[in-house]
Amino acid sequence: MLGIAMTGLLLTFSVACAGVGGIVVAHRRAQAAADLGSLAAATAIQHGHAPCPAAAAVARRNGGRLVGCSVRGEVVAVAVEAATPPLLGAVRHTRASARAGPVWSGGLVPR
Questions:
Q1: Could you read off the pLDDT of 3-42 as tens digits, one per residue?
Q2: Burial degree of 9 (CB within 10 A; 0-12, 13-18, 19+)
Q3: How many other C-beta atoms are found inside a 10 Å radius of the C-beta of residue 62?
Q4: N or C: more exposed end of the chain, with fewer CB within 10 A?
């Protein structure tokens, strides 16, 4: 009986660890997509192209979905979300944001 209880506890712990690991991986994917998307958008501005479609394309190629894009001068702020792996029938979404633009002596242009 004790062996069955310990096996159940170990299984529950393993499922919980897999869920937490999936959330961490999804957030890292969202952050990478946001970082790269903001850089792509800032580069698009420098070349005279529309920044938000560039950010959306890069975010999509990196496993995320662009959910926000704002441009102020040459500084672009993007928000990206990525889906977690399904666990117990539920898929969650995690968000990340990033900014990119030219650097001035005091840092990025103020928000």
A1: 898 899 999 888 888 778 888 889 999 999 999 999 999 9
A2: exposed
A3: 18
A4: N
DSSP letter (8 states) at residue 67: E
Contact indicator for 86, 76 with CB cutoff of 8 Å: no
Backbone φ and ψ for 109, nearest 5 degrees, come out as -60, 140
Q: Which is nearest to 80 in space by CA: 72, 69, 88? A: 69
